[in-house]
Fold this protein.
Amino acid sequence: ELLVSVAIFSIVMVMALGALLSLSVAARRAEALKTAIDNLSFGVDSMSRAIRTGSNYHCGSTGVDTTPQDCSVSSSAGANYISFLGPGSVGQIYYQLDTSACPGQTAGNMGCIERKVGAAGAWYPITSPDIIISNTGYLFHVIGSATGDGIQPEVIITINGTVQINSKQSSNFHLQSTVTQRIYDQ
């Protein structure tokens, strides 16, 4: 009887240990996903705050960065590059999608949002290496960038990508945010 009870106890404990290990692995995955999404949220909030307090929005890499330029949703035109005049004495601020040289990401699986301040400044990623921003569609759409056009400036940010949880698991995300210039455009 003692042998049978020890065997049953051992089987129950092995099953409980397996369940505990599975829960531990799932908790680590959930924590990695939460950390990555928190990082993305912080980056988008930071970008939105800067855009909201800026002016003279220039969408796209064509033309002069300091001259306002729209790339609207209605014409299906967008860009993976935006620049604008920051508040006060900050100067020109730039954001772009980079799919070629993101620090910490492996070749062939790259994509990050970068920021720089000033035309001569260096590009710095604002998303972590485990967030891979895809280049499907456009990142930025700008409407009403010209002063006096009667349209309040609005920037629509659309981000598609993948959170790389580990080497075998990932999770896709689609995020869209609309930012309106804080200063009333007359």
